[in-house]
Every structure is written in structure tokens, then in C-alpha cells.
Specification:
Layout lengths: L7 E5 L5 H14 L4 E5 L5 E6 L6 H4 L10 E9 L8 H7 L8 E5 L10 H18 L12 E8 L2 E7 L25 H10 L3 H7 L5 E5 L5 H8 L3 E5 L6 H4 L4 E4 L12 E6 L5 H13 L3 E9 L5 H16 L4 E5 L7 E7 L4
Parallel strand pairs: 5-6, 8-9, 8-11, 9-10, 11-12
Antiparallel strand pairs: 1-3, 1-4, 2-3, 4-7, 6-7, 12-14, 13-14
Helix pairs in contact: 5-7, 9-10
Length: 355
């Protein structure tokens, strides 16, 4: 058993973006005055970050909602390697000594080519581990959302990681992935990106108060209408801005005004509740235009995507977000994340201060 000698974080990410997540965690630690180092291998689907000081407040320095490239964040309990496949339960029990009681168990594996074949083993091991944990008092009989979660991440048949997450400071889905299905009526798969953004970037309270029937929104670069469709399902009135065509059924809702115009030039004649944008353009140009919307008071809330280059993606993401925040001239909320349904991009949620 290898329990970390100093505080350590385990974070999941999209495969191929391990260097970006490692750089992000390193920057966050440095800004908090903490020293540490990341362990990351491309295409592993996860990153470990280890502090070098025994009492470093590592998790507090990296709040879940401040992270861009992490799908999930948890404190590492133990790295259990070279396990005997005939008895994986005993080493887990030994590692959990002194860890208290958990309110749920999530059996996981990296979302990677190497990790996906382990899904069957993860389920089988979970069926054996769950009653053993309850018998020893490590796991509540029923799910308790007020207690920490226990994560068991299988890396191989003889290698697993144990993690501990705070339900208030982590993603609310196993592997950090909300399982969404594309609706048969959706004009395009891009609808899943906005649906996930509303789940992942807004709190339940924000979804309740900021998404109301009758609100007015603009979708910049709307065609063929995936994001417009999501907004109409919230019963919003949508100005869909694009020179291209929309799915005809959107016009039948009575909620969509299709305006054939350039999304980078169009502006509303009054303040809108929402603006969304998924245009393919340089991230800094998008950030500048989005900032104009807030600076001029054209919208109260926005969700938009920033397409990233092939190299130095964390640096580009950070500089674009900094540029947006600086030019927006005051924001109440700014969050960004690379969602499961994103690819070479990140999704941003921003809100203006109340007026």
C-alpha cells in the first residue's frame, strides 16, 4: 500500500489533456503559495498532484468550480499497486483505517482506452466491496449526501486508487460525466454541450432562478439550431442569429426569431436575459466579443465556447478568460470547464452583477 505522505489530489480529465490539467493545478498551487508537483501521462485520463508540505491546504486552494480541465476532483487516500486479484478487499480496508465513514461508494475507471475495458471488473468488485465496507462501518447503509464519497478508481486488475470527495466541492456524477442522451428532435449533437453546461456550470439554485419561461435570449451562430432548441425547451424566446438555415421545426415553436446576420456584428435592441454562442473562431476574438456584450449591458447571463489551439491550451484558455474578465468590466460569476461533450474547447458561464 502507498498512502501519500503529503496531501495529494486525484483529478480526472479528457484523455489527451493531462498536460493541460497538470499545468493548471501547478499554477493554482503556486498562486496559493503552495509547492508541489504533478504526475501526468498523456492519454491516462487522470492527473495526480502532490504537495511537498505535510499540512498544505491543497484541496482548499483548488476549489472544484475554479478548475477548467478537471472533470472530477478528490483527495487521494491511497495508491494500491501490485494487488493480489484473489483479495483486493483487504488492502482497501487497511487503507481506509482512520478515514471515517462515507456516504456513498463510486466504482470508477479512467475514461481512456486502457480504462474502459475495466468497467465490468469495476462493477463486480463494487458488488463485493460494498457489503464489506458496510460491515466494517466505512459506508452508510443508504446513500448519505452529507458525508464524503469514497471513489475506487481501477487502473488495472491489480492496481487501484482510493479517493475522497466532498459532495459540495466535486462533480455530482461518477467519473465526472453526466450521462445525457441526444433527444430525437434535437437539430444537432451540439445540443448536448449546452445541456451539459447548464448541469455542470450552474448550481441547482442557479438553474431554478436563472432559467425561467418567458425569458429572452440570443443564440449567436445558431445554425442548425442545437443550442436554440435547448433554450426553447426552457420556454425562452430566442433570437437565432446566423446566415445559415435552422431546422424547420424550430420555427413551429413560436419562440424563435431567425435573423440572418453575422453573430459577431449583431446586437440586441434591449437587454436580454441570456446570450449563448458556439461560433468557430479564435478564442481571443470570441472572448473580446463576449466581453462587449457584458460591458454594453446587452445580456445578464451567457454561456459560450472558446475553441483552443493544439498546443499551449491551458495558457490560451487562461489568457482568453483573463481577457474576457478584464474587458467585461465587472462580473458576478465566471466559471469555465472542458465538458464531456466538448472536444478542443472549453465552455464558459458568466453573469453580470445584479442591477
Amino acid at each position: 500500500m502507498n498512502a501519500p505522505a503529503t496531501p495529494s489530489l486525484l483529478c480526472y480529465c479528457r484523455t489527451g489533456f493531462e498536460p493541460e490539467l497538470a499545468a493548471e493545478l501547478t499554477d493554482h498551487a503556486a498562486e496559493a503559495g503552495l509547492s508541489g508537483y504533478a504526475r501526468a501521462n498523456r492519454d491516462d485520463g487522470f492527473v495526480l498532484f502532490h504537495a511537498t508540505e505535510p499540512d498544505a491546504p491543497l484541496s482548499q486552494a483548488m476549489p472544484w468550480r475554479s478548475l477548467v480541465f478537471a472533470r472530477q476532483k478528490m483527495r487521494l487516500i491511497a495508491d494500491l499497486a501490485e494487488l493480489d486479484p484473489s483479495d483486493r478487499v483487504s488492502p482497501v480496508m487497511e487503507a481506509l483505517g482512520g478515514q471515517g465513514r462515507f456516504g456513498d461508494l463510486w466504482m470508477e475507471h479512467p475514461d481512456s482506452d486502457a480504462g474502459k475495458p475495466l468497467s465490468g471488473l469495476a462493477r463486480a468488485f463494487g458488488n463485493a466491496l460494498r457489503p464489506a465496507l458496510r460491515k466494517r462501518g466505512f459506508l452508510t447503509d443508504a446513500v448519505d449526501a452529507n458525508r464524503p464519497r469514497l471513489h475506487v478508481c481501477l487502473l488495472a486488475g491489480n492496481h487501484l486508487l482510493l479517493g475522497r470527495s466532498d459532495p459540495n466541492d466535486s462533480a455530482g456524477w461518477p467519473q465526472g460525466i453526466p450521462r445525457l442522451r441526444l433527444h430525437a428532435d434535437a437539430p444537432s449533437r451540439s445540443a448536448l454541450k449546452l445541456e451539459e453546461a447548464l448541469l455542470a456550470l450552474l448550481t441547482p439554485r442557479e438553474r431554478e432562478t436563472l432559467l425561467k419561461p418567458g425569458m429572452r435570449a440570443a443564440d449567436l451562430g445558431a445554425a442548425p439550431g442545437g443550442w436554440t432548441w435547448v433554450l426553447t425547451r426552457q420556454h425562452m424566446y430566442v433570437s437565432a442569429i446566423d446566415n445559415g438555415p435552422l431546422q424547420p421545426a424550430l420555427h413551429d415553436t413560436g419562440l424563435v426569431d431567425h435573423q440572418r446576420a453575422d453573430g459577431f456584428r449583431w446586437q440586441p435592441d434591449r437587454t436580454l436575459d441570456w446570450m449563448v454562442c458556439d461560433m468557430v473562431e479564435q478564442p481571443r476574438r470570441v472572448a473580446e466579443r463576449m466581453a462587449t456584450w457584458f460591458r454594453e449591458g446587452w445580456c445578464r447571463h451567457a454561456i459560450f465556447n472558446l475553441k483552443l489551439p493544439m498546443k499551449k491550451r491551458w495558457q490560451e484558455a487562461r489568457s482568453s478568460l483573463d481577457l474576457f474578465a478584464e474587458q467585461a468590466d465587472g462580473l458576478a460569476t465566471l466559471r469555465a470547464r472542458q465538458l464531456y461533450h466538448d472536444r478542443e474547447e472549453i465552455t464558459v458561464f458568466a453573469s453580470a452583477p445584479p442591477r
